[in-house]
Amino acid sequence: MGKYFGTDGFRGEANVDLTVEHAYKVGRYLGFYYGKNHEDGKASIVIGKDTRRSSYMFEYSLVAGLTASGADVYLMHVTTTPSVSYIVRLDEFDCGIMISASHNPYYDNGIKIINGQGYKLEAEVEEEIEYYIDGKLPEIPFARREQIGKTVDYAMGRNRYIGYLMTLATRSYKHMRVGLDCANGASSTVAKAVFDALGAKTCVINNEPNGTNINEGCGSTHIEKLQALVKERQLDIGFAYDGDADRCLAVDENGEIIDGDKILYACGCYMAEQGELNNNTVVTTIMSNLGLYKAFEKKGIRYEKTAVGDKYVFENMMENGHSLGGEQSGHIIFSKYATTGDGVLTSIKLMEVILEKKVKVSELFRDIKIYPQLLENVRVKSKPEAKEDEDVIAAVRQVEEALGEDGRILLRESGTEPVIRVMVEASTDILCEQYVNRVVKVIKDKGHEA
Asked: What DSSP line would sit under 293-338, residue for residue?
């Protein structure tokens, strides 16, 4: 990770860690960088944003920087991250920009840059942008006269994406009662339109964004309201998205949560049956539940593990030709249809499984036992020193031996904070707590706690 760009773009509190000056300079550099690929020096770049109050401010700053460098800018307005990725590829833009901090609170924001292939921007280009922001590169000349870029309303791009999603449904949703929690975010412009058009009886909550209520007690990070809605209205299924709708969690007809691991299981088994699971393999991260792996083994489905982050999942999928991968948090990637996690697409693919198999949602998960899991974060003075401490390593080994094949322990460094994460899966919640506390105590006793 760089000075400003992490695994998911440039993110921070608006006008504190990420300012309008930062956004302007990002625009200036991208307009210059991609303009070099054109004889007339004019790049074409598309921008989408979520519903945060600061998203408009950053949109204007980016537009100013891009057009000042000669780029033409196309505005999709409030839309989802996967829709920007789709339109970049479909309409052959040089790159796309999504203004969003995903599941973070409203006062945070971020700039996600998507290259012309719909993938996250290359690290080397992010590094060049950082150098420019810090004044380590020569100043970029301003475009003049007819070379100054133009700004184009491109709301049609979002509508074309909605149309694309509709084509992916294999059956009508006419007799399905579906709940949607739009997190007061970007999916409020997409999800209901798709499900209504496909014939579902939709009950929608948290689809009235006001600039400060995105992710506030709602969406995929606060799924309790959707659980209550599904049970109260006796719905068949519910879907919850995050702020930019690149992730999705679900709720079955009994109000039970269907996390990313369960979605991977249901879709992985179905795709294997249909001969659509490339290499008979599902890509997961190291945080996926042990129960998922045991269930896949029983079905004869292989799996691979990557570092935490949908970026790493997608890289593995592309390198090896896999068709399904994702995270427990609900970032699910269907590589045949998208280059990023897509919450509404995930909903459509899970609906396909339900309708084609003609079962209640809960019946899809009878053969998977999710192990209790406990994660504790410990703020430390030095992540490497804490993780490599001999006594900490010994404590982890002792837990591994005690758990055997009936659980696991994972000790890893946070990618964005001075934090060591201790995660244990075991047969009971009591065991999880016992073993997590044992390792955390050693970390603290050795003086690593900040």
From this structure: HHHHHHHT-EEEEE-SSHHHHHHHHHHHT-SEEE-TTS-EEETTT-
- At residue 416, the pLDDT reads 64
Tell me the sheet residues that pair with 108: 13
Are 264 and 284 spatial neighbours (Cβ–Cβ below 8 Å)? Answer: yes
221: phi then psi, degrees, rounded to nearest 5: -90, -10
**DSSP secondary structure letters along 359-397:** --GGGGGTT--PPPEEEEEEEBS-HHHHHH-HHHHHHHH
Catalytic, out of 61, 69, 100, 102: 102
φ, ψ of residue 413 to 5 degrees: the values are: -90, 140
Q: Are 73 and 150 in contact (CB under 8 A)?
A: yes
> Catalytic annotation on 102?
yes
Average pLDDT of adjacent 10-residue blocks, the chain of 450 residues: 84 96 98 94 96 98 98 98 97 98 95 94 94 96 96 97 97 96 98 97 97 97 97 98 97 97 98 98 95 96 93 94 96 96 98 96 94 93 93 95 92 83 94 95 93
Q: Cα-Cα-Cα-Cα dihedral of 191, 194, 199, 201, to 10°?
A: 10
